[in-house]
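Cont'd.
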Amino acid sequence: MTDQTTKASLPAQSPPVEAPPAQARARGNWFKSDGAEPLRRNLGLIGVLVVLVIIGAATRPELYGDATWVKNNTFTILQQASAIGVVTVGMTFVIIGGGIDLSVGAIIAVAGVWSTTLATQSYGTAGMIFTALVVGVVVGLINGVLISYGRLVPFIATLAMMVAARGVAAQISGKQTQVSANTTINSIASTRWLGIPVLVYILALVVAAGWVLLNRTTFGRRTVAVGGNPEAARLAGINVKFHTLLLYALSGLCCGIAAIMLTSQATSAQAAMANLYELDAIAAAIIGGTLLSGGRGTIIGALFGVLVFSTITNLFAINNLSTEAQNMVKGAIIVAAVLVQQFRYKSLTQLLGRSSS
Amino acid sequence: MTTPDPARPGRSADSPAPGSAGAAIPEQPAGDRPPPTERRASEGHSASADRPAARDEPAPAPEGRHAPEGQPAPEGQPAAGDRPATEDGHTPGEQPAPEGKPDRPNLGDVVLRLDGVVKTFPGVRALDGVQLEVRAGEVHCLLGQNGAGKSTLIKVLAGVHRADEGSITWLGQPFAPASPQAAMRAGIATIYQELDLVDDLSVAENAFLGHEESRAGFLRRRSTAYRTRQILARLGHDHISPRRLVRSLPAAGKQIVSMARALSHDARLIVMDEPSAVLAHDEVRNLFRIIRELTAQGIAVIYISHRLEEIRDIGDRVTVLKDGRTTAANLPARSTPTRELVSRMTGRTIEYVFPPRASTAATEPLLQVEGLTREGEFADASLSVRAGEIVGIAGLVGSGRSELLETIFGARRADRGTVTLNGKRITSIGGAVRAGMGMAPEERKSQALLLDEPIYRNMTLSSFAGYARGGFTDTGKERAAAAETAAALELRPRGDVNRPIRTLSGGNQQKVVVGRWLLGGTKLLLLDEPTRGVDVGARAELYQVIHDLAARGVGVLMVSSEVPEVLGLADRVLVMREGHLIHEAPASEIDEATVLDLVMAGSLMEGEPA
């Protein structure tokens, strides 16, 4: 655009401003550079992860002594985190954009069930994947239209969708578990490339794409603007409604991907699949530093949030502990993470406020 | 006007009542109370003959004193000087009537006195020596331009803010309410412009909000309803059911509920902040009737309004504020000439430093607005702005100016009329921005900024897509462009465009918003109250920025409540009043008093006593 307009007659101050990465590099401190930003921001969660691993090693030293077991267990954790991780990426976008999507679990169920009907399976692997993705996107678009143009509150619109979509899934499947006869789909979960499960690649790919989308594209910039101050975004010429619509479609797309991953893992789909995924995804996004009121959040943080949860699940599994206790610990971790963030945010703003005055 | 008057016939009828006013009224239907109504009706011409002491006698004093207009009067002195004059007129009348309860001041007693009240906020001296004296049973009008300190003064009285210096005496006692509740308990109720009612509670629940009648934690609904009904009857509105939801009431009805709340606290002083702004014409009549009845019961009213005719109608005395100081106190509301009031409100002490202005060459209009209308907001607005021209719209809050600006920008849909920029029809924000229009909205924080984001991202909010390649943002280019603009705008602190914008001062935040449109290559900039919340020093810089923009060929359409700002900056001035553009003149051919007069009264003649 035309930035030279600014120059003309205004008294020119010596403008050259060094970009901060350069400054940081000059100081030779990698940790303070932009590149280390995700790491720095998520130090707390990384700490929690390390603590969890240490607890695991302390409680089951005989298992953690076995390097192969540790490797395989790590992949198990990642694999368990894969589908929910993909959903969380979409959820993070929606929350940063100032919304919420309670219907992700239900969308997965519809997409999973629809793509495993006998009719769909007859179109082969591509047909099934295509169906899951399209169903996800379409349901997301319906959410988006209701919210953007029907002016429903996101909570209400997606709550209604959560109920309705489960109904649709039950209707399609006739409440039966639909077994996938497609060997390609079924083998995704069991295949490893270079010793790493394919599901982990998919997660990594989605996370990477999400990170780039949020931090390096105009789409991501709009998302932050729309969530941070919708009125300011609108008055700056951003089409807030259309962008909101896209965010829910994106969340739906992630659900479609997750539906394939879960179908592959179970070699079947049913109306009750991905139960309570919405809560896990929201919790992961929140403990990853995403502000529930919008405008701020990180993909990497959300990923760490997911990893913390699946590590806890794994920890309880290897110690043969009940899921009840596991849920209590999860709840405690959500509260603790948000408290820590609030505290950190407050002290940060105080600090900034002081330096400005 | 209920200032006491020895000769007033209604007095003896009123006096026994005030102590038990609340209970007495229901049996005596409000409309039938003769003294206040009759008194009002006859006031038009015979007032001066009947009661020279109360209304007309003080007039010569201030007039003689302030005769040399525009000359900066010694602050604070007029207040002190005027007071004895009025007081002398009244004292004889007050003394022989001590029949009220001791805590119930008699009509005409001074209930509230402010002396040298000062309130500072970081960077602003909002109140800088306010004198004010309010008597029981009078309607005391507070007049002043936006930013004169009226709102701060109200908030000090309402217990929201605490005065830094000066004394406030309320019913003979020093008064420093620690909270709004404390002020309420002391008997000072405030009715704010934006009524602070809970829409989903009933009338009775709102009236007694915060001091609900209860027994052992259970609400006494019937007793509350009964008392509410009594109060509503006292206000002459017993047709409003106490059980009705406030949401279902029209604005006038809500105002009645606010007043009922004040009376439920047994308020002795009711502060009304522009109560007529939300009312239709006949509702204002009704409001005045209620105010008259309240004052007849000995309640004092501080009435704030920009409409001079209202002040003349309902007011007894006027105190004028300017730049946080009392510039004239206790002027008679009816007989003080408009010129006098206006000159008390203007006559600057704040320095406005406007850069000299080169005249613009006549070019084709850049922006053309024809017959733009939004029902209930503004009607039939037509204007044009040329490249390099600054056009200013002067008008009060609520005159429809912000709505007009937002509609021109496409942020609101016009009912009728057209907006064209460079021959392109504008109907949406997206279209406006693409055609080269930009806007700095009135509420900077809620409408323009991403407070958590760095300066450069706020600066490129409308143009980041232009720096992007294939959908990928180029933050390096953005930072460089933002840094360049920041330097050109002399943004402070210098140099770091990665700072969160929240850490900047108001003036510098505004520069970022202006810079945003510079980066976008804007041809026409709409500025809504560009210097609101901006301190004096930064103002001068913003003025310079606006001038430089115009010099570069950008057309500017600005709105401001501060008349000197419009006159100092603009080439051409439009005056807006109640949704209509009523006057247009080159800035060099119109003065502040004229504009202010147009803004408030609509014409120079109106409201001027014969």
